[in-house]
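Encode chain A's predicted structure.
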Amino acid sequence: MLNRSNKHHYSLHSFRATDITAYLKNSGKLEVAQHIANHESPRTTKLYDRRQDDISLDEIERIAI
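Encoded structure for chain A:
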């Protein structure tokens, strides 16, 4: 994300999402991620899971030009 001075700005939530996603990608369990993040509900932890944001090369190759 860029701020007004065109410098990158990262929030604590960005880092939290990155850490939770990395943990889950490495076979971590949602319940443990929830505990680590100190979330009361697993629904909150799921909001930080960015695994679905990954785009595979196979998906990119589906684009017809």
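The CA atoms of residues 17 and 48 lie 4 Å apart.
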